[in-house]
């Protein structure tokens, strides 16, 4: 297990306030980084708290009763989030995903959903693709309010169907039946198509792969299998616990024949497969064995307003400081543009080039996943 000493919340990760150009031009929606990748996807973490203690994200040994989460005053307000989101949309963002921690623990989150749903994309005037990722623990009682507020889709993290395995994975003794009830509620109110994310750890829950596929066939939900990743510094990642996506596909195909599908849009993280009998589709996300940095178009906004350019980033760019020192929308948009224009992140590709050995990958303490979302 990694070092358990975590700095105090407000000083947890290195960051800097982005420079505001002396002269700025209005965003065109055509922003590109140094590798020509556009900005299309914004993931917003609304809380660093979660009621689960999954080992791959918030292991209980580190995130115990003594752990200092961010004080409420450090969090971006809903108004601040919406204001920043508006600038990202002007730069070309087409999808906003709310994450955490567990986003449904943020009080009155439906109000933020309503504010974001009111935004329109730059140029074409179409509604944003507004979605949310949740562990599903309180989804059954929140689904209708989220739909009424304007949320379009939802992704639920579910790492096992077997109750004993699921309770070990979430390490909070939470029953799988309650998450399944949340998925059913989301389907009932029309939050779909629903995606189900399963993080696969070899020797921990890989015996659940085929059971998950069998359960969600014909359900209308899209099941996605995610390779166990070396995110952050506390999850004790080991390469021998990574089950390559190719093996996941092979296990499912042995039971239910699969056919490959093409990408629906540029920057997609999942490779898609359909069941040959028309029972739906699955996806695999292979950050470890098949890096997809080359077309990554995602930015991440942390709970306290820091902009991160990669899930494996070592430092952020403090947009909250610009908000709270009274900078104009034009200045904030220009600062965001300057940060993205200089982006060169491709951690997973560099790790792959180093033979999937994290000790040979880019150095520095990586930001924890619960702080910037998945």
Give a verbal description of the structure.
The chain has a domain at 9-191 and 296-372: TIM Barrel. It is globular, with a radius of gyration of 20 Å. The chain contains eleven helices and 13 strands. Strands 1-13-12-11-2-3-4-5-6-7-10-9-8 form a 13-stranded mixed sheet. With 374 residues, the chain is an alpha/beta fold. It starts with 13 loop residues before the first strand and ends with a helix. The longest helix is centred in the middle third of the chain and has 14 residues, at 176-189. Residues 1-11 and 358-362 have low confidence and may be disordered. A hairpin with a 5-residue loop joins strand 9 (271-275) and strand 10 (281-285).
Layout: helices, strands, pairs:
Blueprint (H helix, E strand, L loop, with lengths): L13 E3 L24 E5 L32 H13 L4 E5 L9 H9 L11 E6 L4 H11 L3 E5 L5 H8 L5 H14 L5 E6 L8 H8 L5 E6 L17 H11 L2 E4 L9 E5 L5 E5 L12 E4 L4 E3 L6 E4 H6 L4 H13 L5 H7 L15 H4 L2
Parallel strand pairs: 1-13, 2-3, 2-11, 3-4, 4-5, 5-6, 6-7, 7-10
Antiparallel strand pairs: 8-9, 9-10, 11-12, 12-13
**Which homologous superfamily in CATH is the superfamily of one domain?**
Aldolase class I
Q: What Rg do the Cα atoms give?
A: 20 Å
Write down the secondary-structure element order.
Answer: EEHEHEHEHHEHEHEEEEEEHHHH
| Annotation field: number of helices | 11
Major sheet strand order: 1-13-12-11-2-3-4-5-6-7-10-9-8
Shape: globular
Could you name the CATH topology of one domain? TIM Barrel
End-to-end separation in angstroms reads 21 Å
Largest sheet: 13 strands, mixed
How much of the polypeptide forms β-strand, as a percent range?
A: 15-25%
């Amino acid at each position: 297990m990694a070092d358990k000493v975590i700095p105090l919340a407000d000083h947890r990760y290195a960051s800097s306030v982005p420079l505001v150009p002396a002269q700025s031009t209005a965003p065109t929606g055509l922003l590109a980084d140094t590798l020509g990748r556009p900005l299309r996807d914004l993931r917003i973490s609304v809380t660093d708290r979660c009621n689960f203690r999954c080992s791959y994200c918030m292991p209980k040994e580190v995130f115990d009763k003594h752990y200092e989460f961010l004080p409420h005053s450090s969090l971006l307000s809903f108004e601040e989030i919406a204001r920043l989101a508006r600038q990202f949309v002007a730069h070309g963002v087409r999808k906003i995903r709310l994450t955490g921690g567990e986003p449904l623990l943020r009080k009155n989150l439906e109000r933020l959903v309503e504010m974001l749903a009111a935004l329109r994309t730059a140029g074409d005037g179409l509604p944003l693709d507004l979605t949310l990722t949740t562990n599903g623990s309180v989804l059954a009682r929140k689904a209708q309010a989220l739909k009424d507020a304007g949320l379009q889709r939802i992704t639920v993290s579910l790492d096992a169907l077997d109750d004993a395995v699921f309770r070990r994975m979430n390490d909070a003794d939470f029953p799988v039946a309650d998450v399944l009830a949340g998925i059913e509620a989301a389907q009932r109110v029309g939050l779909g198509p629903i995606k189900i994310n399963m993080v696969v750890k070899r020797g921990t829950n890989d015996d659940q792969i085929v059971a998950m596929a069998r359960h969600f066939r014909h359900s209308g939900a899209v099941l996605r299998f995610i390779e166990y990743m070396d995110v952050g510094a506390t999850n004790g990642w080991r390469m021998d616990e990574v089950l390559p996506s190719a093996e996941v596909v092979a296990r499912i195909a042995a039971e239910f024949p699969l056919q490959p599908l093409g990408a629906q849009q540029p920057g997609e993280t999942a490779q898609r497969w359909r069941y040959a009998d028309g029972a739906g589709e699955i996806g695999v996300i292979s950050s470890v064995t098949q890096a997809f940095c080359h077309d990554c178009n995602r930015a991440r906004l942390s709970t306290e307003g820091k902009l991160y350019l990669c899930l494996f980033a070592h430092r952020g760019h403090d947009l909250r400081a610009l908000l709270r020192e009274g900078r104009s929308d034009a200045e904030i948009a220009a600062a965001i543009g300057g940060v993205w224009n200089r982006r060169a992140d491709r951690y997973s590709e560099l790790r792959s080039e180093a033979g999937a050995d994290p000790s040979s990958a880019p150095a520095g303490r990586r930001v924890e996943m619960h702080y910037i979302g998945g």
